[in-house]
Amino acid sequence: MKGLIGKKIGMTQVFNDEGNLVPVTVIDVNTCLVVGKRTPEKDQYSAVTVGFGEIREKLLNKPQLGFFKKASATPRRHLREFRVTAEEAAAFNVGDAVKADMFAKGELVDVTGVTKGRGFSGVMRRWSFKGSQTKTHGTHEYQRHPGAIGQRKTPGRTYPNKKMPGHYGVERNTTQNLTVVDVDVEKGLVLVKGAVSGHNDSIVIVRPSIKVAMRAAHKAAR
């Protein structure tokens, strides 16, 4: 699975070829660089390590700095390994820039990010509970409470994974099958249709759609 590391710039809207207004998320992949490779002979699998975001050497510790110097690669702030075939890995060299043209207009991609943090939230916000306007189910005089959560004498306890108030957000989330609306190779931008998890300037991972790849594999197997 090839892919890119990028930074979510924000959302805007563009007109497509049919003249329809499409909401898009702008992802900056301008500083992606190949900083390492994994080979079957040495590592028992094939992969390419991609780095994103410039960083000063003084901000790295010795093991990190040694990794980049051993590979003769420019230091990068964020690293990610992408599994590829041995033939695909042979096409990449350490130090090569990975550009936005890896994805084509109209292609389907999966974008992984970390959702926005919303702190400690109640059940109405966290789990979309309707609330009780009739003061039933153990809510008494409160309308925004979850209601009764306990059981009877058997089993006499609250079941695990009960939907309760708690920390909401800051979870890894993948949005699948987003259409690439446009690619700007010169500026290093990828525009995908729809929203992507995470706040502006957050780091996201863009990969080809896994569902499209699985359908192709199943079709070939037939």
Give the helix proportion (percent range). Answer: 10-25%
> What is the makeup of the main sheet?
6 strands, antiparallel, barrel
Note the gap between the termini: 22 Å
Give the mean pLDDT: 91
Major sheet strand order: 1-2-10-9-6-11
**N to C succession of SSEs:** EEEHEHEHEEHEEEEH
Overall 3D geometry?
globular
Radius of gyration: 23 Å
Strand content: 25-35%
What ranges have pLDDT less than 50 throughout 5 or more consecutive residues? Answer: none
What is the number of E strands?
11
Helix count equals 5
Secondary-structure class: alpha+beta
Pfam family, one: Ribosomal_L3
InterPro entries: Ribosomal_uL3, Ribosomal_uL3_bac/org-type, Ribosomal_uL3_CS, Transl_B-barrel_sf
Subunit structure: Part of the 50S ribosomal subunit. Forms a cluster with proteins L14 and L19.
Function: One of the primary rRNA binding proteins, it binds directly near the 3'-end of the 23S rRNA, where it nucleates assembly of the 50S subunit.
Provide a descriptive summary of the structure in words.
The protein is of the alpha+beta class. It contains five helices and eleven strands, in the order βββαβαβαββαββββα. The protein has helices at 40-43, 62-70, 86-90, 123-126, 210-221, and strands at residues 4-15, 21-28, 33-38, 47-54, 76-83, 108-114, 120-121, 166-167, 172-184, 189-193, 203-208. The protein has a six-stranded antiparallel β-barrel with strand order 1-2-10-9-6-11. It has a three-stranded antiparallel beta sheet with strand order 3-4-5. The chain starts with a strand and ends with a helix. The model has no long low-confidence stretch (mean pLDDT 91). This is Large ribosomal subunit protein uL3. Residues 131-155 are annotated as: Disordered. Keywords: Ribonucleoprotein, Ribosomal protein, RNA-binding, rRNA-binding. Belongs to the universal ribosomal protein uL3 family. One of the primary rRNA binding proteins, it binds directly near the 3'-end of the 23S rRNA, where it nucleates assembly of the 50S subunit.
